[in-house]
Amino acid sequence: MNSKVLVAYATSSGSTAEVAEAIGKTLGQEGAQVDVRPIKDVEDLSAYDAVLVGGPMIMGWHRQAVKFLTKNQQALSQMPVAYFVTALNLTKTPQESVEGVPLYCDPRLPKTPQNPDKLSFKDNYATPSKYLAPVLKKAPKVKPVSVGFFGGKLDYSTLNIFYMLFVMLIIQAQPGDYRDWEAIDAWAASLRPALSGA
After folding, report:
1. The pTM is what?
2. Which of these, 35, 69, 153, 179, is most buried using a 10 Å CB contact count?
3. Burial of 20 (0-12, 13-18, 19+ CB in 10 A)
4. What would the DSSP string read from start to end of 123-189?
């Protein structure tokens, strides 16, 4: 895999940046030349053969990540692309794909809903399709080869008051570091066949 790959990320408190770095390191071990950069610092994609876009899920996928996709939709439609999402809550469903896009879920992240036949508001809100479908709709020309869902890290002191209240009252997540580095590395390594076609 001798392609040049960009790992572009949005982050609210820095933990998704660390996930992006880990993904970049794994891809680099696979032989790719990898740049890991904040989305806000990326202006041109012409030097890259493949792009990974990541961000946290708080009240939808990070706005910078969605804006990046819509702004660069034409360029991204011409190369292999993958998304990665950090989240504190993901409802376990039998879905293996959303709109034809393959999903990879950190095995420790999805939680079984209380009633799989009738999802509560909270469980329905956190399904892979609810998280991903709006993103795919915003940039319909981009067809990711994979979307990885991973546990995130929650430290209330790093969130603005609005996000903090949402996480406390709606998501009801407990502070802690839920990132599974082995799952992150496994997903990054699994992308090699799809990205090497770049």
Report:
1. 0.88
2. 69
3. buried
4. HHHTSHHHHHHHHHHHSTT---SEEEEEE-EE-GGGS-HHHHHHIIIII-PPSEE---HHHHHHHHH
What's the token pair of residue 2? 């001798």
The C-alpha atoms of residue 148 and residue 110 are separated, in whole angstroms, by 12
Mean pLDDT, the chain, integer: 88
52-108 pLDDT tens trace: 999 998 778 999 999 999 999 999 999 999 999 999 889 999 989 999 999 999 999
Spatial separation of the C-alpha atoms in residues 53 and 83, rounded to whole Å: 5
- State the Cα–Cα distance between residues 129 and 140, nearest whole angstrom: 15
Q: CA 147, 153, 156, 160: dihedral to nearest 10 degrees?
A: -30
Q: Is 162 exposed, middle or buried (0-12, 13-18, 19+ CB in 10 A)?
A: exposed
Which of the four pLDDT bands, split at 50, 70 and 90, describes residue 120?
confident
User: How far from chain centre, in Å, is Cα 123?
Assistant: 19
- Pick from 144, 120, 115: which is nearest to 53 by CA? 144
Q: Pick left, alpha or beta for residue 120 (phi over 0 → left; psi -120 to 50 → alpha; otherwise beta).
A: beta
Spatial distance between the Cα atoms of 47 and 37, rounded to a whole number of angstroms: 14
